[in-house]
Design goal:
Elements (H helix, E strand, L loop, with lengths): L8 H11 L8 E4 L9 H16 L3 E6 L9 H13 L8 E3 L4 H13 L3 E4 L3 H8 L16 H12 L9 E4 L14 E5 L13 E3 L1 H12 L3 E5 L6 H11 L5 E5 L3 E2 L6 H9 L14 H7 L3 H11 L7 E2 L1 H15 L1 E3 L1 E2 L2 E6 L8 E6 L9 E6 L2 E5 L19 E4 L4 E9 L5 E8 L17 E2 L2 E2 L4 E8 L23 E9 L11 E4 L3 E5 L8 E7 L4 H8 L1
Parallel strand pairs: 1-2, 2-3, 8-9, 10-11, 12-25, 14-20, 18-21, 23-27
Antiparallel strand pairs: 4-5, 5-6, 6-7, 13-24, 14-17, 15-16, 17-22, 18-19, 19-20, 23-24, 25-26, 26-27
Helix pairs in contact: 2-11, 7-8, 11-12
């Protein structure tokens, strides 16, 4: 294969294996999620790496569900994972697998180890197993059940399988070395008793394999060549290799890489579950969540997420990535592809007093200056319009270039207007601004060379549509939400602000769920799935301000 300009350390290993014909020149990876929650941005790194490596080397990548814990797993999680991986743009073809499909074979392999004297049934409780295990500086001690005969172990293990013992009363453990310097080798548990219904196998099984026992077997059975895991499994690699060697079966190569960490975010599935079950967010796909479903609902695109993962790189060293980089990637994508529209989020009415009351014009508005091929659309203009309340001040500092009494500003795609009068209610609140327009400034310019500094977006009061807009910010107030010990203490009370009285240009009535738009001067938005024909709801994907691009330029 032609050498790339730059190879990460995993690609270097794979290229060496191909050169040495280690796996007959094959490259076969897998993405093996547990169906006990929704995938998050950290999983996206593993997805892109595993499927990307397979694509680069013209190999294969399996999607496999590591469904070995029926107490936490659910088919809804299976369905969400399938949707997320496919949405990111990856295809596993006919290679969708489940660990549960191999339960019979795993059981046979366990029997094989028992017969070799390499596994035994243990009656210690989980707490006792931990006590017997020892510490990093103190060796463990043998279980009193370690020397049961092969026949006794086979009989007890079969009874465990048949559901003759209560939950937690026995385990099957590998017999390795209780004084081994690596704690994972101190007679690890292979099976535990769980009399629970499994989402695929029903009530057939009463024992379920642990991750360490199941994962290496799944990789071996599927003919995986390179088993890519995050760094927390580095100390487990010796056990992965021990099981396969003792069984004398095909052995893939486990390679570890650093997981993704992101500022203002938690990526622990346990903590994400707390957020959902505690009602701190509306669900797994809440747009403030770092789940792929949440990012999709917020308006992030597959391209932006894959671009972000590519930029973070693949290393063995842990690091924390600034959330601003992820926001930069989505801005970069949407700036090129999102249609520009006008939306007024905090409206105040403007009456153009010298514009004919019954007149309506259809003005040309460019859809996207980055893509001239997207052409123009028509926006209606009439005597009464809405502008942003923040775009008007009765008294303003020198550098305020928007609308003030006596000043001329430009209405985007329309005309120059000048403020002549301000109408207030009995409490002194501004309720209406009265202006005049220059009929010769159509399109936002004049032939007399006159220039104005301020340009405002607007919508026709007669033709606009009402909408709710949800402004999302970081879910946490601190870069490291765990800084004070309890991440829930750092939840951002302003992570969601709901604006109920927004006015949008009429072209948005045909918007589709998930479709991206740039609201001029306000940011990027997409239509939320909660929308109805009667009430449109838009989520803010990201603001227009890009701090990461400035950091990149300085770097």
């Amino acid at each position: 294969m032609e050498k790339q300009e730059y190879l990460n350390f995993i690609e270097e290993i794979i290229e060496k294996d191909i050169e040495e014909n280690t796996y007959d020149g094959r490259v076969h990876t897998r993405f093996p999620p547990e169906p006990n929650g929704y995938l998050h941005i950290g999983h996206a790194k593993s997805i892109c790496l595993n499927f990307g490596i397979a694509e680069t080397y013209k190999g294969k990548c399996n999607l496999r569900f590591d469904d070995t814990n029926p107490l936490k797993e659910d088919k809804k999680f299976v369905d969400s994972i399938v949707e997320d991986v496919r949405w990111l743009g990856f295809d596993w073809e006919d290679r969708l697998f489940y660990a549960s499909s191999y339960f019979e074979k795993m059981y046979e392999y366990a029997v094989q180890l028992i017969k070799k004297g390499k596994a035994y049934v243990c009656d210690l409780t989980p707490d006792e197993i931990r006590q017997y295990r020892g510490t990093l500086t103190k060796p463990g001690k043998d279980s009193p059940y370690r020397n049961r005969t092969v026949e006794e172990n086979l009989d007890l293990f079969e009874q465990m399988k048949n559901g003759e013992f209560p939950n937690g009363s026995k385990t099957l453990r590998a017999k390795i070395d209780m004084s081994h310097p690596n704690l994972n080798m101190r007679d690890p548990v292979m099976y535990r008793i769980l009399n629970a219904t499994h989402h695929k196998t029903g009530d057939k099984w009463h024992i379920y394999p642990t991750y360490d026992w199941a994962h290496c077997l799944e990789d071996s059975i599927e003919g995986i060549t390179h088993s890519l895991c995050t760094m927390e499994f580095a100390d487990h690699r010796i056990l992965y290799e021990w099981f396969l060697k003792e069984l004398n079966i095909y052995q893939p190569k486990q390679i570890e890489f650093a997981r993704l960490n992101l500022t203002y975010t938690v990526l622990s599935k346990r903590k994400l579950t707390q957020l959902v079950e505690g009602g701190y967010v509306s669900g797994w796909d809440d747009p403030r969540m770092p789940t792929i479903a949440g990012l999709r609902r917020r308006g992030y695109t597959p391209y932006a997420i894959r671009d972000f993962i590519e930029r973070t790189g693949i290393t063995r060293s842990d690091s924390i990535v600034d959330y601003a980089m992820l926001e930069h990637c989505i801005r970069d994508d949407l700036n090129k592809n999102a249609k520009r529209v006008m939306a007024v989020l905090d409206p105040i009415k403007v009456v153009i007093t010298n514009y004919p009351e019954d007149k309506v014009e259809e003005l040309d508005a460019e859809n996207n200056p980055e893509k001239p091929e997207d052409g123009f659309r028509k926006v209606p203009f009439c005597r009464e319009i809405y502008i942003e309340r923040e775009d008007f001040r009765e008294e303003a500092p020198k550098k305020f270039f928007r609308l003030v009494p006596g000043r001329e500003v430009r209405l985007k795609h329309a005309y120059y207007i000048t403020c002549n009068e301000v109408i207030k209610d009995k409490d002194g609140n501004i309720v209406e601004i009265r202006c005049t327009y220059d009929p010769k400034s159509k399109g936002g310019w004049t032939d007399d060379g006159r220039k104005v500094k301020g340009t405002l977006h607007w919508v026709s009061a007669r033709h606009c549509i009402d909408a709710e807009v949800r402004l999302y910010s970081h879910l946490f107030t601190k870069e490291n939400p765990d800084e004070d010990g309890d991440f829930l203490e750092n939840l951002n009370p302003e992570s969601l602000v709901v604006l109920k009285n927004c006015k949008l240009e009429p072209s948005l009535k045909d918007a589709k769920v998930g479709e991206n738009y740039q609201f001029l001067r306000k940011g990027y938005f997409c239509l939320d799935r909660d929308s109805t024909k009667e009430r449109l709801i838009f989520n803010r994907t990201v603001t227009l301000k890009d701090t990461w691009s400035k950091i990149e330029k300085k770097g």
